[in-house]
C-alpha cells in the first residue's frame, strides 16, 4: 500500500515524540531510584557502608582473578632435561654446594622477614628497598628473580611461598614507570623460567600480562623502544642522562630471548616481530670500525655518541646475539653471523694485553681506547667460551680468550683486601686490574665473574675455576653477610669496609645460582638444552626447525 509523504512524516514525528517521552520517564525513574538508594545509604552506619564497598571490591578482584587465570592456548613445552639433580659425588664439593644453598636460604628468609613484597631488601636497616628501575610500586622483584634458584636448589616450600605471593599480589595495572630492559630480564625472564621448571600456568599468564604492558614502549618512529614505560598509560621516554635522547644498545638489544619465548608460548607473533624489527634495523646501519655504538636515537634512527663497550650499556646485546642462535637450536644463522662479526671487531679494537700479560677489554670512546674494564664486562669470558663451538674455525682461540678474561677478572678480585672485585679497574702504566677512583671501588654482589668461572668450568673442568669460585664464596660470606641478609660493600681495598645496605635481587637470581651450579654436576641444566638469559634465568632451547614464529600457526 502506498503511503502519502505527508502522512508518513507526521507518523514519524509522533513516533519520535513518544520515544522521547519514554526516555524522559526512564531518566526520571532512574533518578528517583538513585535518590531513594542514596537516602537508604545515608541511614546506614559508616561501618555498614565500608563493608558494602569492601564486598564490591572483593567481587571485582575475584572477577579479575578468574579472568587472569584463564588459560592461554595450549602449546607443547619442549622436553625439559636436567631440572633437578646435579648432586656431586665428592664429599667436599657436596659440602660446598650445601653451604651455598644455606646462603640462599639466609638471603631469602631475611627478605621474607623484613622486605616481603618490596622489590629488594635493606639487610641492615631491615626494611624494604627499591630503585627507579622498578618504578614506584612494590612488585616483589626479589621474589620473581629468586624463584628459579629456589627451585633448582630444591627449596620447594620457599618456592611455593613465592608463587602464592605472585598469585595474590603481583599486579601490573599500576601507574608506575619501569625500565623495559630490567623488567624484561628480571620479571619476564624470571616468570618464564619458573613456568618452564614448575609448569605452573600462573607464571606464564603473568609473564604475558607484563609483556602486553611493555608493548607500547615500541611505539616510536623507528620501532626502537623507549628505555622506560608507564605500565598504566603506556607513555614511554628515555633516560635523561643518555646521549642525545638515545635508547641504549644493551637495553633494546636484550629482549630477544624472552620475546621469542613469548611468541612461542602464546602463538602471537607480535613479540617476535618487535625484536626482529630491531635486528633488521641494526643490520642496515653503518658501524664505525664494525663496532656498534651504545646509543641510538629512537626518533631519528641515528647513532648517538660513538661509545662502544662490552661492559655496561653494550654487554648483553652481544650476549643475546649468541644466545638467539643457541636458543634456536643453532638454526638462527643470521644471529650467529652478527655475533661473529661483532666480536671480531671487538677483538680488533677493544681487546688488549697489559704489560703484565693480562688480557682486558677496554672501552672505545670517539676514536680513543680507554684502558678500563668494568666488572660487568667480566661476563664476556663466559660468553667467549660459550660461543667457541660454532665459531668460524676459531673454537680453540675463543675458549682461550674466555680463559684469559677469567684470569684477568680473578686478578681484579685477588688484588683487593677483601678478595672481591671492584666495579671497574684500570690498566695504566704500573696499574693493572686495580680500581683507581674511590667511586669505582665498590662491590654490589654482582655475578659476572662467577658466571664466567661457571662457563669455563663447564667447558674445561679445570679445578682452578671451582677454587676461584670458592674464594669468592668465602669472601662474600665473611664481608657481605650481615644480620639481616647480604649487603654490598663500599670499598674492596679496605679491610674494614662500610656496607651499602642493599641486597640486590640479582644476588639471588644470579650470583648464588652460578655458584651453586659451579659446585653441581653438569647434568643439572645442561647447556645443550638450556640457555640462560642475562639475569641467569634458564630458558629451554626451542627446536623450531619446521616452524616459524612470524605468524604461522604451526608454532602452536
Ligand atoms: C644483572 O641485572 C644482569 O646480569 C644484567 O645483564 C647486568 N647487570 C646485572 C648484574 O650485575
From TrEMBL:
PANTHER family: MANNOSYL-OLIGOSACCHARIDE 1,2-ALPHA-MANNOSIDASE IB (PTHR11742:SF40), MANNOSYL-OLIGOSACCHARIDE ALPHA-1,2-MANNOSIDASE-RELATED (PTHR11742). The keyword Metal-binding applies. The keyword Transmembrane applies. InterPro entries: 6hp_glycosidase-like_sf, Glyco_hydro_47, Glycosyl_Hydrolase_47, Seven-hairpin_glycosidases. Keywords: Calcium, Disulfide bond, Glycosidase, Hydrolase, Membrane, Metal-binding, Signal-anchor, Transmembrane. Ca(2+) binds at residue 534. It comes from Pteropus vampyrus. Disulfide bonds join 378-409. It comes from the Eukaryota. It is found in: Endomembrane system. The gene is MAN1A2. This is alpha-1,2-Mannosidase.
Amino acid at each position: 500500500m502506498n503511503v502519502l509523504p505527508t502522512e508518513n512524516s507526521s507518523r514519524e514525528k509522533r513516533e519520535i515524540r513518544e520515544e522521547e517521552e519514554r526516555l524522559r520517564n526512564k531518566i526520571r525513574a532512574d533518578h528517583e531510584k538513585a535518590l531513594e538508594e542514596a537516602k537508604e545509604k545515608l541511614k546506614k552506619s559508616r561501618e555498614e557502608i565500608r563493608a558494602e564497598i569492601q564486598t564490591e571490591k572483593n567481587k571485582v578482584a575475584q572477577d579479575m582473578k578468574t579472568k587472569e587465570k584463564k588459560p592461554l592456548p595450549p602449546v607443547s613445552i619442549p622436553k625439559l632435561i636436567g631440572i633437578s639433580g646435579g648432586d656431586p659425588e665428592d664429599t667436599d664439593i657436596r659440602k660446598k654446594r650445601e653451604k651455598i644453598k644455606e646462603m640462599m636460604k639466609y638471603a631469602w628468609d631475611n627478605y621474607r622477614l623484613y622486605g616481603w613484597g618490596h622489590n629488594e631488601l635493606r639487610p641492615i636497616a631491615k626494611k624494604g628497598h627499591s630503585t627507579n628501575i622498578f618504578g614506584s610500586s612494590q612488585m616483589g622483584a626479589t621474589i620473581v628473580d629468586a624463584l628459579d634458584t629456589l627451585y633448582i636448589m630444591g627449596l620447594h616450600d620457599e618456592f611455593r611461598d613465592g608463587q602464592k605471593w605472585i598469585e595474590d599480589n603481583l599486579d601490573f595495572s599500576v601507574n608506575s614507570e619501569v625500565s623495559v630492559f630490567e623488567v624484561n630480564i628480571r620479571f619476564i625472564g624470571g616468570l618464564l623460567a619458573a613456568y618452564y621448571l614448575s609448569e605452573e600456568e600462573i607464571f606464564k599468564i603473568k609473564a604475558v600480562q607484563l609483556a602486553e604492558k611493555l608493548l607500547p614502549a615500541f611505539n616510536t618512529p623507528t620501532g626502537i623502544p623507549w628505555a622506560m614505560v608507564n605500565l598504566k598509560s603506556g607513555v614511554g621516554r628515555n633516560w635523561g642522562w643518555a646521549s642525545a635522547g638515545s635508547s641504549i644498545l644493551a637495553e633494546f638489544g636484550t629482549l630477544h630471548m624472552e620475546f621469542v619465548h613469548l611468541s612461542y608460548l602464546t602463538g602471537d607473533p607480535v613479540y617476535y616481530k618487535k625484536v626482529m624489527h630491531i635486528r633488521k634495523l641494526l643490520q642496515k646501519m653503518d658501524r664505525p670500525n664494525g663496532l656498534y655504538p651504545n646509543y641510538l636515537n629512537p626518533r631519528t634512527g641515528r647513532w648517538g655518541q660513538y661509545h662502544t663497550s662490552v661492559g655496561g650499556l653494550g654487554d648483553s646485546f652481544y650476549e643475546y646475539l649468541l644466545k638467539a642462535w643457541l636458543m634456536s637450536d643453532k638454526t638462527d644463522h643470521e644471529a650467529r653471523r652478527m655475533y661473529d662479526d661483532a666480536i671480531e671487531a671487538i677483538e680488533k679494537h677493544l681487546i688488549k694485553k697489559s704489560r703484565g700479560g693480562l688480557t682486558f677489554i677496554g672501552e672505545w670512546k670517539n676514536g680513543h681506547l680507554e684502558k678500563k674494564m668494568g666488572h660487568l664486562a667480566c661476563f664476556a669470558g663466559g660468553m667467549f667460551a660459550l660461543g667457541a663451538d660454532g665459531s668460524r674455525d676459531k673454537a680453540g682461540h675463543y675458549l682461550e680468550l674466555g680463559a684469559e678474561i677469567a684470569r684477568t677478572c680473578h686478578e681484579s678480585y685477588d688484588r683487593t683486601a677483601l678478595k672481591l672485585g671492584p666495579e671497574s679497574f684500570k690498566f695504566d702504566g704500573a696499574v693493572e686490574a686495580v680500581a683507581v677512583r674511590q667511586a669505582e671501588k665498590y662491590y654490589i654482589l654482582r655475578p659476572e665473574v662467577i658466571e664466567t668461572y661457571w662457563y669455563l668450568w663447564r667447558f674445561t673442568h679445570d679445578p682452578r675455576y671451582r677454587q676461584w669460585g670458592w674464594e669468592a664464596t668465602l669472601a662474600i660470606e665473611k664481608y657481605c653477610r650481615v644480620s639481616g641478609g647480604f649487603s654490598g660493600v663500599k670499598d674492596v681495598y679496605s679491610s674494614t669496609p662500610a656496607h651499602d645496605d642493599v641486597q640486590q635481587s640479582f644476588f639471588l637470581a644470579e650470583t648464588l645460582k652460578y655458584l651453586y651450579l659451579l659446585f653441581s654436576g653438569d647434568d643439572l641444566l645442561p647447556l645443550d638444552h638450556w640457555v640462560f638469559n642475562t639475569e641467569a634465568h634458564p630458558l629451554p632451547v626451542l627446536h623450531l626447525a619446521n616452524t616459524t614464529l612470524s605468524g604461522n600457526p604451526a608454532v602452536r
